[in-house]
Design goal:
mainly alpha, Ribonuclease iii, N-terminal Endonuclease Domain, Chain A, Double Stranded RNA Binding Domain, 2 domains, three-stranded antiparallel sheet, about 60% helix
Length: about 240
């Protein structure tokens, strides 16, 4: 049984003029399929909330990180609005306790399912947006703390979210060449492998990484290469602000 929405409004520090919008944001499709209700499921609000988050987070990044180019801003927004991040925000609000679920979804762990939590967070954003008169500034006032907590470490989030992608972007922009990865050593028994990878471009090794999986070793090599570019070439890949 879900918790009363009054507690969620207190957590958001926002009281709905139309509480039905919040109920819609919390209504999983399985609930609406099993109940006769005038309130639709949360999929349309999820769609809207996704777009609203792109707008308000993008605006904040644009204004806060004035030295960052389009590529960095795009990566930062993707990092902050990816499903894992939104799921964590939903858990902080304990959104799972408020979800309206069908019987089967309830019995199969629907209240803690990451996809349900992520969808609900986006839907709640969409609901607040409609309820407050489609005011993006009000949205940012309410939800800014979730995103601003990462302001000081945003560069590292971009780097470690996808170092291979960032390295490719940098090398193509600076040297018009893509990096190449090569596994140079495989150690350990089959059930406990350790891979060593090197990444190079312009016939020069730029980084070496190790990992239990090939992808992990490649990512570590990319991080090393990005650090080398920063230190030896003086390239400001990830400005702090």
């Amino acid at each position: 049984m879900e918790k009363p929405i009054e507690f969620l409004q207190e957590a958001l520090q926002y009281r709905f003029n139309n509480p039905d919008l919040l109920l819609e944001a919390l209504s999983h499709p399985s609930y609406c399929a099993e109940h006769e209700t005038y309130i639709p499921n949360n999929q349309r609000l999820e769609f809207l909330g996704d777009a609203v988050l792109d707008l308000v987070v993008g605006t904040w990044l644009y204004e806060e990180f004035r030295d960052w180019n389009e590529g960095l801003l795009t990566r930062a927004r993707a990092s902050l609005t990816r499903s894992e991040a939104l799921t964590a925000f939903a858990e902080k609000l304990q959104l799972g306790d408020y979800l309206r679920l069908g019987v089967g979804e309830e019995q199969n762990g629907g209240r803690t399912r990451p996809s349900n939590l992520c969808d609900a967070f986006e839907a709640v954003v969409g609901a607040v947006y409609l309820d407050c008169g489609k005011n993006p500034d009000r949205i940012w006032e309410i939800f800014a703390p979730f995103f601003q907590q990462y302001q000081g470490t945003l560069g590292n989030r971009i780097l470690f979210d996808n170092p291979k992608g960032l390295l490719q972007e940098v090398t193509q922009r600076m040297f018009h060449q893509r990096p190449t990865y090569e596994i140079i050593e495989v150690d350990g028994p089959e059930h406990h492998r350790q891979y060593t990878c090197q990444v190079y471009f312009q016939e020069q090794v730029m980084g070496v990484g190790k990992g239990k999986r090939i992808r992990e070793a490649e990512q570590e090599a990319a991080v090393a290469a990005l650090q080398k570019l920063t230190e030896e070439y003086g390239i400001a890949i990830l400005p702090s602000s």
